[in-house]
Amino acid sequence: MGYKVAVVGATGNVGREMLGILDERSFPADEVVALASRRSQGIEVSYGDRTLRCRTLDHYDFSDVDICLMSAGSAVSKEWAPRIVAAGAVVIDNSSCWRYDADVPLVVPEVNADAAAGFRKKGIIANPNCSTAPLVVALKPLHDHARIKRVVVATYQSVSGAGKEAMDELFAQTKSVFTLEEPESKKFPKRIAFNLIPHIDVFMEDGYTKEEWKMVAETKKILDPKIKLTATCVRVPVFIGHSEAVNIEFEQPITADEARDILRSAPGCLVIDKREPGGYVTPYECAGEDATYISRIREDATVENGLAMWIVSDNLRKGAALNAIQIAECLISRKLIQAKKKAA
Ligand SMILES: NC(=O)c1ccc[n+]([C@@H]2O[C@H](COP(=O)([O-])OP(=O)(O)OC[C@H]3O[C@@H](n4cnc5c(N)ncnc54)[C@H](OP(=O)(O)O)[C@@H]3O)[C@@H](O)[C@H]2O)c1
Question: How far, in Å, from the CA of 101 to the mean position of ligand 1?
């Protein structure tokens, strides 16, 4: 017997990707329902070769749903996740709403799949931020080998990480630059076309942004609370694919060659690291791909036991939809959930 899966936020960037990935991976679903806001009532979304008609979250009865994949923002998750759990479904949430709750596991299956079993306390599992997921996939095997002390990361985050309206804004602004019109900024605080914005999410009291704080808190929760991390998160005029320039300081010695070998056999990682023009991966190439790509691995001689590298991944896939579906697969393969008996 297969599962009934509800996708909340099915018209969004992440929700649409979820529907595509459920189909690609032949997820054992007997039924998939697409849910969004009232604005999208009746809108058609693709699920492989099939078309699903969107229904409204407000009036949906979750009593025979087994798994709910949510990607409709924190406010919707805060209100709806407990109600959906009360109806008997497990919620895998993409927003930041539950990530820091001690009773909610924050899971990247390649790194801390065992933590998924902790979902029973609240019935919710959280999916990390789109920059944290690929970072911890790359850090985990290196941490196991040489213990990470400190990480310094600068991100180059695509506009799709801010939702579908943000992608439309980059497109419209780019067009207006070529037609000599004044680009209009609504979603971003400054023009994003042919520009960079060193500010994602709100500012905190210490001068860091919430996006930067999330990378610190989430890396500690998923990988190791002892790891010190500092981040600068930057929005760039790229449609899909987040990139990260990462400097890592280890407790024990590790060479670039050793790191390359370790990462080559690590789950979820793909090393493309030829020291020649084009011998590295860019965000354009990672769009639509599942792997966390690692390039430019080299020793950082400014610290003892230091490495530098370049990480790229599709933020809508490993950074969001793919990771959520891998969590659902993990719940099934570890027999942590069972499909409910459905009315005939
Ligand atoms: N994009 C990423 O890389 C990424 C990565 C990790 C996590 N996330 C998180 O995933 C969530 C969705 O991101 P996104 O990029 O897919 O955003 P998006 O493209 O703006 O889509 C938002 C989705 O939420 C739905 N929604 C909004 N308000 C709703 C309501 N009151 N009831 C039901 N559905 C509602 C929208 O439906 P309508 O079309 O009907 O408005 C739409 O389907 C956010 O929490 C985001 O932080 C995103």
Answer: 21
